[in-house]
Structure formats: structure tokens, C-alpha cells
């Protein structure tokens, strides 16, 4: 667990997911820096509660599978995480956990944790193709976003995100219509990726529906993330895709590839189409 | 809710998911007919607890998203479902639910329900391609399985499953190595598909790792299912795929297409590779 006494030298990500044991729970503070519009980014909430789960499971430090249901919008301010172990085995442990602000549940999750360093490393048979992106100096940086976006979504200033120029037309009213957005990704302060930060990374890209010309907010119904390996240091590549827009909903699949071409995280969320 | 007094005319699926209110909970019986090896099929457990959630949410009859963590193997015999509402809104409701046998939790889920009949029907922009299968009389039926398989897994006798002949080589020791298994699917008694039976259908095919030559049991870490529309009557087409076998784990994506070429359900599970 990250202790508050180390805060001075921490990256902003580590500082902001810092939690403190309090009775059976863990308390911390949601920083406004992770806000998108009226609420704190869902992926950041996952990293925050994920840090509490990590603290509750000393022998199982890494998220392997996390399924999240967002019950009400989280806001800047104090937050409390409660973790309830359901099964603690040798290789994995499964818990239920809630994130509350006051009496309001913001987020409820089920999660299985383990020690990814103890998982096999010699059995990689991935047939998925790594996310292919132009060199970073040919991509479109998130720093080009208008000031009004930066104020509406300070979240977007917590990382460098360099978009594939073929998949960022939505920013100028010319979406590709394919349902795909890809980008290079690195946390602010050059903070290296780890399993906890991957929980945020899978929800960091804009809604894939932007690329279909649907520019509104797309509330998440459910998000499940699988962390498949400890990421190597360096830039990540992220990709959102959707293949089934229908019935007022869409699925959004995220892949996260590390600098060694390993598929280190996959997620799928079901979200509501913008009205 | 299906009442026990109707059992005489029910399909075996409806008979076996029948639950009865008892205090705040719902009770029923896991039938040995849904067993695979030492435990009751996970998808059937989802339909069973899914029926209890349906009963607890009269205004939100259909599963939309269900995330399941299997805590211990369910066995034939009495079972009890407890459902705890977290948020009941106009369009959707979110609950936590547990399935217990005696004091042992078998399955814990988070789920969002709604009324799929009230979701839009004129916005289908699915780019996924329907599962393509040869005509049913050119496929390989599950009834050809050896008697030892039928006894080990009576579950496989609860439905007709007609496999794509190009993806069933594993049954004779010649897996394709592609990581894909597809089949036609229909419940016994010609019971038509509905949102509850789709929760079972997404976990009905053999583990996709069979097609990679890994023939053992693959325990599920996490399974999330999205029901995207009420299925039309008739045969379903199911497909399992995996693209990231690594670290002792694999993801298994299921698609369920109905007789009108609508992608009615998607699921992803994270499972452990056979040892």
C-alpha cells in the first residue's frame, strides 16, 4: 500500500489513489483533476478502489479481473472503500467492494486478484494483432484540445494521449464512421504503467461513439477489465472498438498493448448511446 | 415469475429455473441434468439466479448486463438466491445477488436489468458479421458424443448443438488451432430462446481451448454477459473465440445470433488454462 507519508515524491496518479485504513474500510480523496464533466472518470474510480482491494489482500497484489457497476456519479471530495473477501485461495482471491461518498454508493465491484509475477510467462499464444499507430510525432496530441474541453474535463490533462490521425476526425466534425479510436498513452510525470494504472487506462480514451458522430456522454452500464500481465515500462497503445451499436446501447472493447507488444489488458463495457 | 404449479406443462429449462419466494430470498433446486463433471454449468446458474433477479424487479424483467464470479462449484440439490437492489431507476435497475447452497456461496453477481421491449428498435448499426454456419444437416450434432461424455456431462443433453464441421476436429484429436468453435443451438423441448435462456447459451459451447488442443477443464474467473435484444423464435447460432492465450489464462468471447441475424447477446469470460 502507498503510504501518505510518501506523498511528496509521488506522481499525481499515486498521490490521488492514496488511501488510508480506517477501521475495516479505506478512506481517501477524489481529486477534481480526474473529473469529466459532472463526475470523476470511471477508470480512475477503478484504480482508487483497486488500490483499496490491493491493500486488503496482501498476498494477492494485482487486479486480474474487475467488474464495475457505476451506481451514482462520483464527485471531488472524500471517499470511502469497503472490501469484503468472498474467497481467498492460493492463486487468486475474490472480493466484493463498494466505493461510497457519504451514504451514497458511487461504484460497486466484484474483483479477482492475484500475483501476476507468479503467473506463467512462457505460454503466450496471442493471435490478436498489436494496435498499429503512426510514430508519435505524426499523431495528434490531446494537448491540442480547446481550453473549454480542458476545463470541462480536467481528466484529459492527467496523461499524454497521441491519437491516430485517421481516427480523430470527430474532433473536427469528420468522424470516420468505423467505430474505432486508437492512441499512444502515458501518464503525467512519466509515471510508468502498472496493473492499477491499467484499470484507468481502459477507460481513458473518448467514447468510441465519437468516431460514429455521436458526440454526447455515453453512461457506462457495466465495465469489466482483465489485466493479463504486468506492463513493461514505456508508452502504452490503447484502442477502443465497437461492433454492435443497437437497442440504444453499444459495447466498447478496449485493448492495451505495452512497449514489448504484449496485450496487457482487455476490457469491455456496455454503455448507453447518447440521447 | 414462473410458478411451481405450472410445472407439468413446462419445458425442462423452465421447470429447472423455477424459484419460490421464501422470506426475502428465492429458493429452488439445482437439477443434476445441468451438471458438467463435478459442478452445475455456470451459464445455467446464471439463468437460475437471473430468474430470481427478474422476480425481485417487476418493472425491469430482462437481464441487460450480468457479471458473475464463481466462488465454489454448485452441486445438484437445494439452492437459495438473495437479491439486493442497489439502484432502481426508470430505465434500468442494478442489483447484487448471491446464490448459496447451505452456507456456501456458489456464485455472486452484479446485474443491470431493464425492459428490453422498451429499448429502441430502429437504431441497429451492427458491423459484426453474423456467425456463418453450414446448413444444419451438414453440421455435427452433439448427440454423436460418446456415452461417457453424456454421463460425465448430462448438461450436453439439455439442447441440440450442431457444430461447424471445420471447428469440431478436437473431438477426434485434430483441433484446428484457430481458437474458434461455432454451432447451431436450440433448447430441448424446442423451448424458444428468451433473455433468461441466453444467459445459459453464452456458456453452453465447449471451452474454446478445445480448439487449441487443450482438452481439460478451464475454470471461469469472471463472466460478463450482455443481452442486447429479445431473441426471435428459432435456432440460435453461437460462436466462441479467443485471441489472447497467455499467462495461464485466456479470454473467451461468445456471440449469440438469432434467426433474424440480430446479435442478441455478447459475453466475455476470463478463464484459467487447463493445467
UniProtKB/TrEMBL annotation, chains A, B:
Residues 137-272 form the Acyl-CoA thioesterase-like C-terminal domain. Residues 32-114 form the Acyl-CoA thioesterase-like N-terminal HotDog domain. Pfam families: 4HBT_3, 4HBT_3C. InterPro entries: ACOT8-like_C, Acyl-CoA_hotdog, HotDog_dom_sf, Sec_Metab_Biosynth-Assoc, TesB_ACOT8-like_N. This is Thioesterase family protein.
